[in-house]
Write a structure and sequence with these properties.
Elements (H helix, E strand, L loop, with lengths): L30 H15 L1 H12 L5 H28 L30 H19 L9 H24 L4 H5 L7 H19 L19 H20 L7 H28 L6 H15 L10 H16 L2 H5 L7 H19 L2 H4 L17 H28 L10 H6 L1 H6 L23 H16 L19
Helix pairs in contact: 1-4, 1-8, 2-3, 2-4, 2-8, 3-4, 3-5, 4-7, 5-7, 5-15, 7-13, 7-15, 8-9, 8-10, 9-10, 9-11, 10-11, 10-13, 11-13, 13-15
Length: 494
């Protein structure tokens, strides 16, 4: 329990918020707000399999399962990191301008005190924000598609969330963060989630090197998606989950939440159409399904920093501009010669940058005021310096993410048992067969499917002797009228 003097009502504004044996910690919060933020967190979790399905569909068949594996692995690793010290490093109370602290290490005292979003308790806010960290990790590891060693990837992800994601999230969303105090606006994660994951994925792809392909001697390889169906399913999960991602970022069940949801949906739709039409004129008059899905995601990314700040009709501009520019941004990997196979930088890095800059232009004070939030607005409120704040946030996020990720990767790759990349033979065979031993489509590899078996243990010889003795007993008749119980196939007496 916190030692601070309690409020007259018996509640605390920090620590656990009060003694749950003496007071009802729930009465300080509106239950509708808590329900909506909790539901939004569950919606955001659906984005984890959404990213996995999207990446799996875009990958080659022999690597498809590894991308699904990576998304679920990221959920597990980041969940533990967020519990261990992630939440404390981002939202620790009385923190510095750069990073939180360890006051909430292992979620110590995280319970019923008002959180950074003071409409909900700490424990609920921790759950909601943990989903954002998970999604960011899932997106970032896409830069390593089809050639990263999976064990070292887990170690790298834990470290990356700690030294890259946590500082940027603290700058942006902690009330003491330097970007928050500067006045930069980021409603739901254009910087900490999208630009951060995009720049991190670009660094991961750069230092791993391009994928091995005997048919591609020069330049960056380019492959068709092995399953457009998976791409579509992943996009549907992401689009649906984004309503919680943006709609829940108000921290309350106000009209501003629903306003953000409408803007989110509109930006996704116009982004899909924008990319679709650009693809039609750029690539042989085809209405590409994959292009439409990528366009929807680019629109969703762009509206993320703006959904609770900008008038709803500007969502059309966010979708159209992001869909078109992100389409052309896909070509950057060929110019930079960096094999970003999932186009994480083009969609999330560039899309997040576009959205953040346009937020500086179109943020309106009356939209934020729908739940009582006060801002100076952007250019439409004649607050012209806001664009400078947005550009400062973009530059700081991209540079920190790319630079620190590069340092972290180079350090880890020099540790013998944490080498970042698969061997060339493993890569050619495919990550699924070489490392996982399972496949997305079992019928194609029925003879090669790995079936887990228990490893021999020090007790195995004893069990074997007991088994032999048991068999010998069953073959001899019982003596002196003694009755032997029969055994089932599981080895237990019937």
């Amino acid at each position: 329990m916190s030692e601070e003097t309690p409020l007259p009502s018996g509640y605390y504004d920090s620590g656990t918020g009060g003694n749950s044996l003496e007071v009802d910690l729930n009465v300080r919060f509106d239950k509708a707000d808590m329900v909506w933020v909790a539901v939004s967190g569950c919606l955001v979790f659906l984005m984890v399999p959404g990213v996995g399905l999207l990446y799996s569909g875009l990958a080659r068949k022999k690597h498809a399962l590894s991308l699904l594996w990576a998304s679920l692995m990221a959920a597990g690793v980041v969940s533990f990191q967020w519990f261990f010290w992630g939440y404390s490093l981002v939202f620790g109370r009385d923190s510095s301008n750069f990073l939180g602290n360890m006051k909430n290490f292992c979620l110590m005292d995280v319970l019923g005190a008002p959180s950074t979003a003071d409409t909900v308790p700490d424990i609920l806010f921790c759950f909601f924000q943990g989903m954002f960290a998970m999604v960011t990790g899932c997106l970032m590891v896409g830069g390593a598609c089809e050639r990263a060693a999976l064990g070292p990837m887990m170690v790298f992800l834990f470290c990356w969330v700690t030294v890259v994601y946590c500082p940027i999230a603290a700058w942006t969303w902690n009330a003491n963060g330097w970007l928050a105090e500067l006045g930069a606006l980021d409603f739901a994660g254009g910087g900490p989630v999208h630009m951060n994951s995009g720049a991190g994925a670009l660094a991961y792809a750069l230092w791993l090197g391009k994928r091995k392909d005997p048919a591609v001697a020069k330049g960056v390889p380019k492959y068709k998606p092995h399953s457009v169906t998976s791409v579509v399913l992943g996009t549907v999960f992401l689009w649906f989950g984004w309503f919680g991602f943006n709609g829940g970022s108000t921290g309350n069940a106000s009209m501003r939440s629903w306003y953000a949801c409408v803007s989110t949906n509109l930006a996704a739709g116009t982004g899909a159409l924008s990319w679709l039409f650009v693809d039609y004129f750029r690539f042989g008059r085809k209405w590409t399904t994959t292009g439409m899905c990528c366009g929807a995601i680019s629109g969703l990314v762009a509206i993320t920093p703006a959904a609770g700040y900008t008038p709803v009709y500007f969502a059309v501009a966010f979708g159209v501009v992001a869909g078109a520019l992100c389409n052309f941004a896909v070509e950057l990997k060929f110019l930079m010669r960096i094999d970003d196979g999932m186009d994480v930088f083009a969609l999330h890095g560039v899309g997040g940058f576009i959205g953040s800059v346009m937020t500086g232009l179109f943020a309106a004070d009356y939209v934020a005021a729908l739940d009582g939030t006060e801002i100076d607005g952007g250019w439409i409120n004649q607050h012209y310096v806001q664009l400078g704040y947005q550009l400062a946030a973009c530059c700081a996020t991209l540079l920190w993410s790319f630079g620190i990720t590069s340092i972290l990767l180079n350090i880890q790759d020099r540790i013998p048992f944490l080498k970042l990349r698969l061997s060339e033979d493993q890569e050619i065979i495919g990550t699924d067969a070489a490392v996982i031993g399972e496949f997305t489509y079992a019928d194609d590899h029925q003879d090669n499917m790995f079936i887990p078996q228990p490893e021999p243990t020090p007790l195995s010889p004893i069990k074997s002797i007991r088994s032999v003795l048991g068999n010998n007993k069953s073959q001899n008749p019982p003596a002196n009228g003694e009755t032997l119980g029969s055994e089932t196939s599981s080895g237990k007496p019937e």
